[in-house]
Structures are given as C-alpha cells and as structure tokens.
TrEMBL record:
Residues 7-103, 141-242 form the Pseudouridine synthase I TruA alpha/beta domain. This is tRNA pseudouridine synthase A. GO terms for molecular function: RNA binding; tRNA pseudouridine(38-40) synthase activity. One of its GO terms (biological process) is tRNA pseudouridine synthesis. Formation of pseudouridine at positions 38, 39 and 40 in the anticodon stem and loop of transfer RNAs. Keywords: Isomerase, tRNA processing. Gene3D superfamilies: Pseudouridine synthase I, catalytic domain, C-terminal subdomain (3.30.70.660), Pseudouridine synthase I, catalytic domain, N-terminal subdomain (3.30.70.580). InterPro entries: PsdUridine_synth_cat_dom_sf, PsdUridine_synth_TruA, PsdUridine_synth_TruA_a/b_dom, PsdUridine_synth_TruA_C, TruA/RsuA/RluB/E/F_N. Its EC number is 5.4.99.12.
Length: 244
C-alpha cells in the first residue's frame, strides 16, 4: 500500500532533506521512525529536496508499506517518533500511480526578507537584510521571469539537464518591513529560487538593472547569476497535484 504524507519542518538544524552519511537530515529522521513502525527499512520519496537551513510548510512525500493502519494512525505513529522540528500534518492512502515528485504539477516557494534592524530571534527564519529596497523596481524586474524560459543562468553550477521551466507567479509584497517573495512554477532546479530572489534583491538595491537580469536569462547559462539569497528565508510553501 502507498501512503502519502504532508510534512512541515524547521530546516535550521538539518543538513538538507536528502539522506546523507553522518549528517542530520529530514529524510533520515522520518525513515528512522518508519523503520520502527514497519520493523523494516522504508525509503520515502519526496516532492523535491530542500537544502540545509531551508524550511517547509507543506512538503509531500510517499512510501510503500505492508503494514495496514488507519490513515490517522499513520500520522500519530510517525509523529510519536519525530523530533520537535518535524511534524506530519496529514497521512492518507493513495493509489500506486501517485508519485510525490512526478505527479506534482506546481510548486510554491516563499522567501522572507527583513529591511528592519537585525533581530536575533528571526535570524533562522527571515533573511536579515537590514536596508531599504525599491519595491517597485523589484516588482517590475520580477515580471521578466514569468512564462516558459531556460533558467540555466539561475541554477546551480553543478546541475545539468533540462533547465526549461515555467514560472506562473512572482509576487513581491511588503508589510511592516518584511518583504515576501512568492514564486509559483511547474518546477524549480537546485538554487533556482535563491538565485532569482538574489538577482531581484540586487535590482532593488540599485546595484544592477532589470536589463542585466534579462541578459542573464536570455544567455541560457552563458552569463551566470552570481547573487544567491541566503537559505534561512526560504520556505517550500505548497506542492500542488491534479486532485487539489
């Protein structure tokens, strides 16, 4: 039987989502719990990986099991073994054709930035930028990324393969000195959100122009974006599927 779970986690003390030897990861903690419940090794498959210090509000993963428990019992059982920085929000049975990654049609990320004075209590959850930015310039520049593009210039240097993605939404909202960047697309390559936000921040700081960002995008990887926003402000907000 295949179980689909929705999980929330604080990424501050994790070395990313994916299992790594000798490092604390979200996948590692969940699989340890499932091994205790199933009494055998269980591999989970997530909608995607998040990097060290990146958070998730609604991450999705699935796993296959021989154990027959009521859906809500799965939620309670896994949470019983979870550390206090991971929480299973929902668990349900799904058909064998469902895949957390390949069945996803859209993903939403949010990035939080503070233009206010440094706050040590928020340092793991909001990028402490501490200076004013030109919101209107950033909003104008963000629209060059809407639609289908080759985002090779805004991905990790060590990642190859298909870098063509469609970005549906890139909203920027400011409230009480906190700027929220909201991106929705059909998929994101590694570091793509952080490079997009990083480039837009440079425009808002008037260090580069919208035209320079546009040139990077049109170069399809020849001109790389060297601005990468810090991980602490990044959240995987939602993963969308056909049935949602």
């Amino acid at each position: 039987m295949r179980v689909k779970c929705v999980v929330s986690y604080d990424g501050s003390r994790f070395h990313g989502f994916q299992v790594q030897d000798k490092e604390r990861t979200v996948q590692g903690e969940i699989q340890k719990a499932l091994k205790k419940i199933n009494e055998e090794e269980v591999i989970i498959h997530a909608s995607g990986r998040t990097d060290a210090k990146v958070h998730a509000v609604h991450q999705v993963f699935h796993f296959d099991t021989k154990k027959d428990l009521p859906p809500q019992q799965w939620k309670r059982a896994i949470n019983h073994f979870m550390p206090n920085d991971i929480y299973i929000l929902d668990a349900s049975y799904t058909d064998d054709e469902f895949h957390s990654r390949y069945s996803a049609i859209k993903k939403e990320y949010r990035y939080l930035l503070s233009t206010k004075e440094y706050n040590p209590f928020d340092t793991n959850y909001v990028f402490q930028y501490g200076r004013q930015l030109d919101i209107e310039l950033m909003r104008e520049a963000s629209q060059i990324f809407i639609g289908e593009h080759n985002f090779a210039s805004f991905c990790s240097y060590d990642q190859y393969g298909n870098t063509i993605r469609t970005l549906y939404t890139f909203d920027i909202v400011e409230e009480d000195g906190i700027i929220t960047f909201r991106l929705i697309g059909n998929g994101f390559r590694r570091y793509m959100v952080r490079h997009l936000v990083g480039g837009i921040i440079q425009v808002g700081a008037k260090r580069i122009s919208k035209e320079i960002l546009s040139e990077m995008l049109e170069s399809c990887g020849t001109k790389k974006c060297l601005f990468k926003a810090k991980p602490q402000g990044l959240y995987l907000q939602e993963v969308y599927y056909e049935e949602d």
